[in-house]
Amino acid sequence: MKASNSALPQAAGLTRFALWMTMLITLVILSACGGGAATESSNPPVVNLVCDPDDATTFDECGTVMVALTDADGDFLNYTVDVTSLTLETANGRIIETLPNRTRINFTDYVDLTELVAIRAIPPATYVSGTISIDYTDAEVFVEADGDSKAAVVTDLDGNALTQTDLKITLSNRDQLRIVRGRSALLQLDFDLDASHAVDIVPTPATAASEQFIVAEVSPVDEKDIRVRGPLANVNEDDMSYTVAVRPFHDRDGDFGRMKVFVTDDTEFEVNEEVFAGIDGLRALSAAGLGTATIAQGTLTTGDRTFTADIVLAGSSVPGVDQDAVHGNIIARSGNFLTVRGATIISSDRVAHFHDDVVVEVGPDTKVFKDGDRFADLDIGAISVGQRVTIRGNKSQAETDAASPQILFDATEGAVRMHVTHLLGMVNTVTPGQADITLHGIDRRRVDIFDFAGTGVSPDMDADPDNYEVATGALPLANFAAGKPIAAWGFPSAFGMAPPDFNGRTVIDYTNVRSALGVGWGSSGTVAPFVRVDIDGLVLDNDNADIDQRHHIKNGPLLIDLTELTSDTSIVPRSDGRSLYYIKSQDSLRQYSDFGDFVNDLSLSLDGATTARSMHARGMYDADSNTLTAYKIGVYLLEP
Asked: How far apart are CA 401 and CA 538, in angstroms?
């Protein structure tokens, strides 16, 4: 699995579908030899042994499972719950626990990346299912309502608030997890928010009715950066690596296994707020000492399953170490006061809470860092509206005079790290080196919440969301067209220095902007959701009378109403790359990597008595042909 070089959250969408946990839990089996267990032609035998690291005789016979977590794009602003257990089950019923400790997680942190959760030694076997246990007792769930955050309660379909729940993990017959000594395998678990939640923002608190299920994959369809956290265990300069004792999220205790992190000459280090690269970074890490907190973000290679970091933070540069931290997007700036929205505050005790809006004060002594530009000489003037940031400082409740905002966070002696920021919009015009766009969203928030006052060299040059100027340099723009969606990743221009308003590092034209389709047919479903079901694809009946409030395609920044289109929508499988298809019922989840197998099951299941309750798909949408080329398709059936 190889992820992109940037952690790139998807942009804001409306809460029409509203989403429940898409959690990609990736179970990656690592070994010294590399290689893929998928090449095995027969099932390995079940070995009845205990994988104790202190018992070399038995431990050498075990495999190693790496458990990681991610999430898909959605409209939840915060979804924090406690995961109490994650087990795998062999074909003969033996259950293995892979999560050694209860851990608290916020799924919305992982839209843009995958987090390593644990590395565990497990016995060789064929693992066919599993269970993840979630505790909602102290859940913090927020959704977007008219641009603001609103607390939500997660319920079952009968309206009962969830407390404890166990979600079953089931693998397809073709894609079971085979663990053998000295080999590796890959498994990914996906909680699809679109497919398993329906949010009502009218009541207070809002409600999020959940139809919870997990889709499991032995090979990931989505590829993202991976993040590895934990205290330093050792440094090896000879092979350009270091090892951490894995502790995911903001956990300070527990044994979640060991992970080796490789670095290159280009790996960026920030150690105790000092910047290094390559071997110098490793030496700084070694000097910081064993037990130093670290965070690494990078890629996991497909061949030998080695993890290589692009960026490493260590010591006081890790949010929540020595100082409090706040993470979010800047929606306004007035002098040295920054308003951060979508804000999560990470206290120095490593406890994280969602606060949505936080006002931060910066000053001349605030240090400023920028992802991918490690040696830039930056000051607070570089920090502008729209920028995604992590800010280290101290929480405060002090109030100033009436002319100044309330200070909730003091970073005047702290530091700001500027992260790659994601835009979604529609192209207005394209000229060499620049695309002017109608800006719809920044990261996952709608553009109308951002106040661009002060961003320009003069007030009349402030960034205009109706004609937002994106500098593209030498990036190819041949496929960009007026009126078509565009996605861009990069950094807003320094405050008071626009135009241009944004400096793009990557831009994606409309042919590759990811889209999501969601349609529901009410609590009773419909017996005829499709006009056609065959090996060439599915054709939705957009005029079906049973269609409920879910009937949209989210095409980049656009929300397209299926019922207002002039033709029925086609959903076809993509011709290359990995794909996943599933059929959910009340008691089962049937998964397929082959579209033909999926279509055969779906055709037989829609027998006139079985009804379809909902469908969700992800892929690339062509508005001209009204066709979604999908890499994921799921249908929820109500079988009699």
From this structure: 62
